[in-house]
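Request: Not sure, any thoughts?
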Amino acid sequence: MQSYKLAFTAVTIVFFFSAGSSFGQGARLSPPEIYQAIPTRFDRIDDLETDNAGFENPSASEQATVTPQTDVEDQEQADWPELSSGIARSMAPGIDQRFGLASDIDLPSKFDLTAYLPTPGKQGRNDCVAWAIAYSAYSCQIGQERRKKPSDPSDLFSPAFIFNQLSVNGNPLYATQAIDFVKQNGCATKATMSSEDTTPNARALVEGKTFRMQRNEKANTLHEIETYIHEGYPVILIVRMGGDFRSDTSNDSPYDWRQESDRRDGYHAITAVGYDDSKQAVLVMNSWGTQWKDDGFCWVSYDNFDPIGGQSWCAEAHVVGVKTFAPINVSMQSSGRTRNFNRRSSRFQRRLFQLAADRRVYEGGKAISPNDWVFDDIACNKDSLFALGRYQTVFRMNEDLSGRSWTHLNHGKMANKKVTMLAGDRTTDLLALTGSNELFHYVARSGNWEPVQISETERSPVDLRLVNGKIRVTTSDGSVFVHDRDSDWSLAP
């Protein structure tokens, strides 16, 4: 299977796509050879084989198209055995069910992502592709990780960050062009690049790289679109234009392209954000303001997706993944700190852990977390493993001569607080971000939580994650701080 990799600059892409492509009033159709090279979720798992531990090992194509979820910045510094790996699944808190390792997803009859979607905005240029990717897909997924409905500028990702850097003379974009851009550069929020800004400043560029795309796939069928939605991924649709669709008037029944009375040339980008079998319809979010249809949303008939292709109403269906997905691999230093002299690339023996799609923690192919416990995330520091429970509580794994146990850590200054994100590295114990935007440091020696002040200003932390092995904290104004080996904080370069 071909891997989807575009290494062109923005100028090269525009030049390459300038001939023989379809132009529209906001979106352009990708050349067939480019679009068809994008893998589907099923392309990646066709060749997976189940090993004795019950995991499935990734094929070469999967490894080429999905960025690994790992806490190691330089993998040559650790002696990494081959880890078992389950199918890549969403880890969005409260969104997806507890998936089996290799089982098909049993979809509910209806589902939508409105709890994590921003209020529909209104584009003012030919930038619908940027709105679908940044404002809809990005804001929704990061909102899931932060466990909130995006509303503040620091939660809303900026269409201008993508469009202003790619568009030539205000012309429309290709979805594949914009997707390649966010793979390399990520996307900034409106806190650092508002709609009025023409070019990104240094702060926006740094913030963007904190949120690079992790995975890109296409959906070939309606069922695949529904599956992605159920996993918390808005699906970016490139659709045909029509007078009935363009009208602000609400529809009495789901929109059906086959009944369109005023078909027009051109394509437009929207996002699929829900579905309902009783309506036989997909819920889409537009970028034409809240006066369009039903507060900026519209139900469209399942028939519009039979089939998906260049001659149909839905010509392309893209998935842009920025949030964390399973399996998540983390490591910590083994207690013996035994140096491995057999391999030059290894410094110390390390213990490797994996949070799989079934929400359990594994080591060496064996489950080490209780059968009935569900975890949303895991993190390691130098010598401890931590896990974030479904009910936003933090646990630490303990080991002694009597066996293994898990300790509840939400006590003291963290009592009754809901943790949304956690991260650890080799220089600190553990950092946790709460739903009230408070950052805490867990001190293992004392067993206490201590508040962390990032800077002397009143900027509050809104995001905590590990990027290339380093802890990054993003504040409400979009500034990104990194944690160094001296436990100090500085602005990310």
About this structure: The CA atoms of residues 229 and 291 lie 24 Å apart. Residues 10-37+107-321 form a domain with the Cathepsin B; Chain A fold (CATH 3.90.70.10). DSSP finds ten helices and 27 strands in the chain. The first strand starts at residue 27 and ends at 28.
